[in-house]
Amino acid sequence: MTVLDSFSLQGKVAVVTGASRGIGRALAQALGEAGAAVAVTARTVEAAERAAGELQASGITALPVGLEVTDPVQVDRMVELVGERLGPIDVLVNNAGISIGRAALDTPDELWREVLATNLDGVWYCSKAVGARMAERGGGSIVNIGSMSAMIVNRPRWQPAYLASKAAVHQLTKALAAEWAPYGIRVNALAPGYILTEASPVDQPEYREWCVEPAAMKRYGLPEELGPAVVFLAGQASSFMTGSVVVIDGGFTLF
């Protein structure tokens, strides 16, 4: 196998949660371009179909799936559907997440639970459901989308629930990596910095002081800049790697 061959995902089946837009959409594109058939999940079937249609138009095998990651029943159904339509899942990318800026004293309990349910419980439910099948088959790769926010405090908006959820995702990644290594399952995480998306308008002037200037590279990132790293973590190129958190933040956390 050549070096470039080790990055190929030809013949693999990948699931990307929260893949209708932003980072998830870019990751689905990257996995598909590397050769994987991709199940695109979103909270609504319409959003999933729209994203899957775009992937299909570029020659990628894509399956739209409506999925609420906080519902374990829906998660189990997703795993069954993907298995029936595309085949057993080789790669799971836990990307679905929400970020709601609110100071701690202004955060109602129901908002705290909503963020933790999506960002942490969703990773747990999907990892368990897919991981059980991977263990039966002798292996697979799980990539959790964490955040540099697990290591810093975001500004200018306070986000205690989001920060706590992403720190937990990083630790869950390490816990599953240690426990599931004997089954041939590798579990790693990607920790993006400030990435420009619809939900994160870091190109606006009010974000420059806190999100752009502190980074060593003095800029924000784009979703497509995360794609190659996820392809690396998904396949044979990272075969001796598990429990790692790969930070891609333009050097923000260096200081």
UniProtKB/TrEMBL annotation:
UniProtKB keywords = Oxidoreductase
> Could you tell me which residue ranges the Ketoreductase domain spans?
12-193
The superkingdom of the source organism is Bacteria
Matching Pfam families, A to Z? adh_short_C2
Alphabetized SMART domains for the sequence: PKS_KR
Known EC number? 1.1.1.-
Enzyme class, spelled out: oxidoreductase
Which N-terminal stretch is annotated as signal sequence?
Answer: none
Q: What is this protein called?
A: SDR family NAD(P)-dependent oxidoreductase
Tell me which family the UniProt entry assigns to this protein: Belongs to the short-chain dehydrogenases/reductases (SDR) family.
Record GO terms (molecular function): oxidoreductase activity
